[in-house]
Amino acid sequence: MEVAADQEKLELSNVEIMQE
Length: 20
Fold this sequence. Notes:
single chain, mainly alpha
């Protein structure tokens, strides 16, 4: 399933947003 991959991408995106 690609859902897990999408969730990982979302978490990575959230980390980048928090670092700003």
